[in-house]
Automatic annotation (TrEMBL):
The modification N6-(pyridoxal phosphate)lysine is found at residue 249. Transmembrane segments: none annotated. This is Methionine gamma-lyase. Its cofactor is pyridoxal 5'-phosphate. The keyword DNA-binding does not apply.
Amino acid sequence: MAEAGLHNVVLQGKKRPGSDDTDGDDFMVAKKSMAFHPNPWEDPAAALASSRHEFGEHGGVNMSIEASATFTVMEPETMRRMFAGELGPDRDFFIYSRHFNPTVLNLSRQMAALEGTEAAYCTSSGMSAISSVFLQLCSSGGHVVASRSLYGGTHALLTHFLPRACNITTTFVDMRDFEMVKGAIVEGKTNVLYFESMSNPTLAVASVPELCRIAHDKGVKVVVDNTFAPMVLSPARLGADVVVHSISKYISGGADAIAGAVCGPASLVNSMMDLHQGALMLLGPTMNAKVAFELSARLPHLGLRMKEHCHRALVYATRMKKLGLKVIYPGLEDHPDHAVLKSMANKEYGYGGILCVDMETEERANRLMHYLQNYTQFGLMAVSLGYYETLMSCSGSSTSSEMNEEEKALAGISPGLVRMSIGYSGTLEQRWSQLEKALSRMQDSTLLQKN
């Protein structure tokens, strides 16, 4: 829809009347009176609880799944008005599920509540959300300043695809070096400052307020990937313009769905859904309604899951450090960004559910993961994160393999860096015992090799 007033994403709408006559002021007043307002905003769990609860078609406590690809109208004139942008989902008028679907719209409202943004739109994958935001905020000849330490797929998008296909270039910087960030931003040319709230895989924590101040002083939009830290950090509340997610990770929690989200101002969602210029509308990374239904049922217990992920990660990191391992975890006081994270974090959610162990070489990293999975059953060798089982991967040869050796070195990715997404299945002590046994086997193996 061409700028179709998509503030609906955060309005608490209701079912439209049987007729298509929606000009009555009482209808819109009723909808506006129940609108979700981000302020006052306590924390993500409170915001989620205060957001609209969508009931089922027949009064079910769970919403119904609207599986239709297309939607009917009662009067021919209504369709013209919908395509003209006069009627839209804010008044419960839907055209086609690539545009808006009621079930996906409900999940989008929940994501907006979670991140404390005015609006959100859920997509078919995290990369589709990221790509669409860049294509919406940058035109040919545009410029991005981005963190050196990023998920490999995002790094490849910025390094290879966007320059070739769209003439959009990127300057990569150390986000801890504020002067370097300032120097890389070219006023009048740079469109976006992009970084991850916690970097993948090095777990550097971005100082969101300071980076936003630097960017906004130069008229640049700030886009933050918060995939590693839902509930823990709320970048939009710290100044970010747009927050993107791979919902496939912590928010899903089941490693059984691929999904993404763009959270930000309603004006941005409007522009991304524009009939003629909208990246989401025209590229069509549409989320399936059945996936949206599944995911919306998991958001209410995201806070509980994150607390346990984070609690176990802190316990394991503390104990592993005492054993002499080179552990990277922002919850440890000797982590260079510990104070920054503590100053920004939402209370009681911890410091993230990911920790890294630097085994220095890929061979040692692989051997450790082999023992952890095949000898003690501590976790699984797999990419991704946020699953209830611990997932382990050697980042340099997996999720960061798109980067060359120089790029990995600049990002601080050691060849032996093992990323662990700490799960919560089993008891904490049971899993710790399995971890200790694997480390013991590792030491025995090392001794045998020396002899």
